[in-house]
Amino acid sequence: MTVLWTSADAVAATGGTTTADWQAQGVSIDTRTIQPGDLFVALTAARDGHDFVAQALEKGAAAALVTHRPAGVGDDAPLLIVGDVLGGLADLARFARARTAARIVAVTGSVGKTSTKEMLRAALAPQGATHAAEASYNNHWGVPLTLARMPADCTYAVIEIGMSNPGEIAPLSQLTRPHVALVTTVAAAHLEAFENLAGIAHEKASIVAGLTAGGTAILNADLDTSDILRDVAAQYGAKIVTFGTSGDWRVGDVRITDAATIIEARHAETAYLCKLSVPGRHFAMNAVAVLAVSDALGADPAQSAMNLGQWLPPQGRGTREQVIVDQGQDGGTIDLIDDAFNANPTSMTAALEVLAASTPRDGVGLIQTGRRIAILGDMLELGPDEIQMHADLADCPHLAALTTVHCAGPRMRALFDALPADLRGQWTPQADDMADAVMGLIDAGDVVLVKGSKGSQVSRVVDAIRKLGHR
To answer: Domain 319-468: what homologous superfamily?
Structure first.
């Protein structure tokens, strides 16, 4: 396997002390997923990572990044000793960034960061070795971990950067030093930590703070806060490229079917056609942003447009699957749309549009009439107006195409009470209660959307639906 870190390079990066010579093929922070040959980083979170060093070494870790020799670890154990483990991880990230010639894009936005990161991976990988995190590693440890795992010889790297409080994005961008910075959108997410959307826009725009000289900022042109994004990018001297229904990269006709999204896009005099294998207008906007990024990185946007046909959203972010709910008949399935990882008013509206465009199947199941059913959990971190934001979802035009809306959680009670009587299904105080009741809420032929913030635990409803197929 390719050596990612030698003890000599790690010492040079961190200024630490090594107790042995070693070589690592990867970097891990979790003994549950660690692979033989990984460098184990003993971060402190809910538990002190030093408590797991012995276990990591038993599982074949090449060495451990620590501040001291933990209890139960032998004198001959391979350790990289530093003053601060998180700081040491950041040092590895800087060293890894400095030694690569890869073209790097940093991605942020209130909605669509992880999906867009995966779109970029799909678009770029056939054009050159592409590095991106396997999960949503976008915070103060996730970004340096992603960089520390970056092979020196990759062609492209995609780094996702998130935030929950002011002042978090700029330092991570400065660590990343991207050639291209993308802001997918600005919406009411994490609003409880900001006074208003303008504050969120300023924070998202700060992703340009780490751009390399001559770097490009790719910005959504369709937002009320687009001027803020442009102003901040201009202050940093970034080359500004816009995308949207207006802008340098324009979204044209978007056709949504049960199983696909067909997008016409245009840049200057060139037209592009993308076909995504999942439905969603919000995915269309992100796809056009990917074409803009590809062009700015020096990749071929036409090739990227073709490659996007291979992309699928990460689990819990709009994935679609069939689940058997009646094993006694042919076609005894439902179509499940699992969007239970994240939610705010913008992404909720987008998901409801996908459900509204879906086609249920008649002639199967007990009811014999296929339905469009939404099971919605609380949207979290929306600030003092969160109850009104939930109630306002009742005005979403896509609800008119739905049969029933079920709501779980105290905040979703506001939507439940605001719904027309003919749409109102069940309300439960917790997602677990909805999961217990789900067998009686759905039938073969239905299309079922499950959507909510991760903290609402509405994913338990998804799990309960999947288990119906194993009865």
So the answer is: Mur ligase, C-terminal domain (3.90.190.20)
